[in-house]
Amino acid sequence: MKSKLWTLVALFVVISTLAAQCAAPATVVVTKEVEKVVTQEVDKVVTKEVEKVVTKEVEVEKEVVVTPTPEAKPFEGVEVNILTFTGPQIAEPLQRRGPDFTELTGAKINVIVVPFNELYQKILTDLATGTNSFDAFVFAPQWMVDYIVPGYLEDLTDRVAADEALQWDDIAPFFRNFSATYEGRIYTIPLDGDFQMAYYRSDLLEQEGLAPPETWEDYLNIAKTFHGRDLNGDGDPDYGSCISKKRGAQAYWMVWSVAGAFLQSQGTSQGAFFDTETMEPLVNNEAFAAALDVYNETTKYGPPDELNLDVGDTRGLFTSGRCALSIDWGDIGTLAIDPETSVVQDKVGAVILPGSPRVLDRATGKLVDCDEATCPYATNGVNHAPYAAFGGWSGGINAAADPKVKDAAYAFFSYMSQPAQSNVDVTIGITGFNPYRISQFLNRQLWVEAGMSPEAASNYLGAIEESLNSPNMVLDLRIPQNQRYQQVVLDTALSQFLAGEITRDEAMQQIYDGWEEITEELGREDQLNAYLGTLGISK
Amino acid sequence: MQVEQHSQDQSLPAAGLETARPLNGRWRRLSARTEQMAGNVFILPAVLVVLFLSIFPLVVSLYLSLSRLKFVKGGFEINFVGLANYRKLLAGSEKTHFLGAMANPSPLGWLVFGVVVALMVWEMVRYVRSRRFSVMGLFWRSLAAVLFGLGVWLLVRTLSPGGRPGTMVVTWIYVFVGAAVQYALGLCLALLVTQHLPGRRFFRVVFLLPMMITPVGVAYMFRMLVDTDKGPFQPIWQALGLGLFSWVNDPWGARAAVVIGDIWQWTPFMFIVLLAALEGQSVELIEAALVDGANRWQVFWHITLPQILPVSTTLVLIRVIEAFKIIDLPNILTNGGPGTATESLTLQAFISWRTLDLGTSAAIAYMLLFVVTFVGISYVSLVRQRVAEVW
Fold first, then answer.
1. How many domains are there within chain A?
2. Residue B238 forms contact with A (CB below 8 Å)
3. A369 with A503, same domain?
C-alpha cells in the first residue's frame, strides 16, 4: 500500500516538474533569472575587457614613446592553425619556418596534417559546417573554385597589392594568374610551382649512347633497355621506369602527363579534358586509348609493386639508383642532390614531358599524323604538351577566421613566399617546393650553392622553363568538383585498368560515363562555362 | 481486468483514507490511469535517450541515403533524390563496383547453382509436409530462399571466368572464408592447449597476442610482410628469382593477403572462447565414453562437439557480424587495390564518404545493414533448430 502511495507521489513530482517546464509563467521567471545572471556576467566581462584594453593601450603608448623599437611583435599571442597534407614534403618547410616566424612576429604557427586523399574534403567540411577549426590551408589551387564560390576563402587581392616584400611580380605569371587568381581576384599565395617532367639517369643513357626520350615510344624503349639490369651496383635487378600508380595518391596526374601530348595540340586554350563545344569528355577516342596503352606498358618495366607506390616511394627508388626513368614534378631534381639520401648526384637529367608524333583529331576521334596544321607547336614533328599538374601548393585563408588571425596567416604565407625564404626552400628536396619565381630561374647560383653542378642546374631549370613557356601547356582541371572527376572516377577506373580488372575500352567507357554523370548532375552548361573560363575562353 | 480491480481495491487504504468514505468513480479511474501511466513515464527518459542516440541517427542516415549533399554559398543543402543512390549501386554507374561484373556462369557455376536450388526446393517441400507448417513460416522461408538464391547467383556469375566480384562479394569472401578458417584454427589450437603438453600456459598467452594488437598495426605489419621489394621476405623472394614479381599486385593475391591478415588477428578470439568452452565441458561424459571404449575421434565428434556447439554458434555469429564491417585491413594493407579488388562494403562506404558523396555512402551502409540482418536472422533460425535437434 505504501508503495502505491509512493508511486503516486513520485508520479505527481514528475508530472509537476514537466508541467513547470512547459507552463508559460514559470518559463518567464526562469528566463528572467538567466537573463539577469547573463547580464551581470557580461557586465563583468565587458568591464574586464575595457580594463584590459585600457591597460594595453597605455602600455603600448608607453612603449612607443619611451622605447620605440622596430622589433615590436605585431601578432603576439596569436595562434594560426594551418591544415595541409601529411608530409614530410610541404609540411616540413611550414613546420621548420614556423618558429622563425614566431620569433619575428609573435604569431604561433600550428601545422596540422591529414593524408592527401582526405585533404580536399577535410577543408570543405570544416568550412561548410562552420567548424572553422583551421585558420588557413595549404592545398591544391585547382580545388579553390569549390571553396571560393560558397565564400569560404578570404580575398587577398588588397593585401597582396599592399605587400611589397612579397614581390608579387617576381612570381611567374602562370602561377600568379592560374594558381592564385580566380575571376580576377587573388585568393592564394603560391608556395610551389608544379610541372611534371621526365627524369632520366644521364650516366646510363650516356653509357648506352641513347638520347633523352623525345616521344613516349622513346620512353618505353629506354625503359625496356634498362629493365631488369642492375643500375646501382648492388647486384639486384632494377627497373626501367618508376611511376607512382597508387590509388588515392598521384596516379591520375601521371596518366594525363602521358595523355596530354595525344589530346592537345592546338595550344593551351584547346584544353585536354573536355570538348569545348559539348563538354564531352575526351576519353573515348583513339588518342586516350593510345595513352592508356603507353601508361599500361610502363608498368611492365616498373617495380613489381608499382601499383602500390606513391610519389614518395618512386622518388626514393629513383634517388637510390633503382630506376632509369621516372615521371614526376620538380622534386626529383632537388632530392637527387641530397648527399644523405641520393646515390645519383649529378647523374640525373630532366626533360620536358615526352610527346607524340600523332595527335587527336577531335572531329573524328582518330589519331592523325602531325603536320603544320594539326601540330602547330610541334618540335621535330613531335607534339609536346607539358602538364601543369596540380598547379603548385598554395596558401589560402579561412574567411571566417578572426581578423587578427587572418592577418597573421597572411603574413606567414607572405613570409614563406618571399624570395629570402622561398629561394632557399625550392633548392631543398624535402620541402616539396619547386621553383615558381622568376628570380629562382634566373639566379643559377642558388642551385650551385645547393649542390647542383652548373650543367645539372641548367638542365633541370631548362626543363621547367621549357614547360612553363610552352604555348601548348596543358592546364589542370579547375571546374567545380574537379576532385570528383579526377580523384574519384578517373583514379578508380585507372587503378582497375592497371590491375587488369577491366580492359582498356571498359576503363575509357567507365571514365566517360562517370564524368558525364557528374556533368549532368552539376549542369552541363554551368560546367562548360566554368571549363571555358579556366581556359581563358569567353563564350 | 481482475488485476485492475484488485489494484483499485488495494488503492483505497493506500490513499490513507481511513474515514472509509467511498471514493467516487472519477477518482478511481484517475488513480487507475496514473497507475498505468507511471511505468511509461518512468521509462520515458530512457526511451528518449535510446531514440536520440540510436534510432535518430538510423533515421537520419536513411534520409541521407535518399538524398544528395550539395555545397552552396554559406553552407550545404541536402536534396531529396528518392532511390537514385540505390539505383546507382544496383543498376547504375556503381553497379560493377558494388555488385561486380557479371559473366555467363561456367559449367561448374551452373552445377553449384543447380545444387543450391535443388537443396532449397527439397527443404521447402520437407517443410510444407512437416507438422510445423504455417503460412507465415512458408512466406519467410520463401523470402529467405529467394534472397539466398540471388546471393548464390551473384557469386556464381561474378566468380565465373570473365566476371569480377564487386565489394559485396569480396566482403562475403572475407566474412565466410575468414570466419570458417578462424573457427577451424581456433578449435585446433584450443584442443592442443587443453592437452597436457609442456609450455601450454606460455602458448595460451602467445596465441592471444594478435588480438591485442590494433587492427591498424596488424595492417601495417602485413603491409611490410607482403612487400617483396623492401620487406623482411625480400631476400627469400630474390633468392627464388621472384624479384620482379609481387603477389599483392594480383587481385586474388591481394585478397588472400587481407584474409590471411584477418585470420591471423581473429583466430585468437575463437581460440580463447573455445578454450573456455572445452575446459568447461563435463568430464564425466568423456570418461564414461572412454570406459565404453570410444576412440578419441568418437569422443570429439559425439561428446565434445555437441557440448561446445551452443558456444560455437554464438561465437560464429558474433564473428560473422563483426567481420562484415572489415575496413582497417584492406584500407591500410592495399588501399582497396589493386583497382578495387580488395575493397569491402565498409571501405567502399568510407571512400564515398571521404569524397563527400554522403548519399551513396549511406546507401551502401544500409545495404550492408540489410545483408548483415538477413545473414544474422537466417543463421540464428537455422542454427537454433539444429542445436535444438542435437540436444
1. 2
2. yes
3. yes
B55 touches chain A (CB under 8 A): no
Whether residue A304 is contained in a domain is answered as yes
> Which residues of chain A are within 8 Å of residue B354 when distances are taken between CB atoms?
117-118, 121
**Same domain membership, residue A161 and residue A120:** yes
> Chain A residue closest to B336 (CA)?
A247
Domain range enclosing A92: 79-190+394-431
Distance CA B166, CA A78 (A): 51
Q: How far is B35 from chain A (nearest CA, A)?
A: 8
Cell triple for B135: 503460412
> B38 — contact with chain A (CB < 8 Å)?
yes
- Specify the pTM: 0.78
Nearest Cα neighbor of B177 from B310, B278, B307, B326 is B326
Nearest-10 Cα torsion for A529, A535, A536, A539:
-30
CA–CA gap between residue A64 and residue B333 (Å, rounded): 60
B333-358 tens-digit pLDDT: 888 878 889 999 999 999 888 888 88
CA B146 to CA B129: how far, in whole Å?
Answer: 20
Q: What angle do CA A521, A525, A527 make, to 5 degrees?
A: 65
**B337–A495 C-beta distance less than 8 A:** yes
Q: Residue B283 corresponds to which amino acid? A: V
Q: For chain A, how long is the longest CA-to-CA vector? A: 107
C-alpha to C-alpha distance for A507 and A503, rounded to whole angstroms: 6
Mean pLDDT by 10 residues, chain A (539 residues): 56 51 34 35 37 36 38 86 89 94 94 90 87 93 87 94 94 87 91 92 94 96 94 90 90 94 93 94 95 96 88 92 94 89 91 96 93 92 93 93 95 95 92 92 89 89 90 91 89 90 92 92 90 75
Q: Which residues are CB-neighbours of A119 under 8 A, at least 6 positions away? A: A83, A84, A85, A139, A140
For residue A15, the one-letter residue type is: I
Cβ contact, residue pair A499, B34, below 8 Å: no
Give me the CATH number covering residue A123. Answer: 3.40.190.10
Q: Could you tell me which chain B residue has the CA closest to the CA of A245? A: B338
> Complex ipTM above 0.85?
no
Q: Which of residues 100-119 of B touch A (CB under 8 A)?
A: 101
Q: Do B244 and A247 touch (CB under 8 A)?
A: no
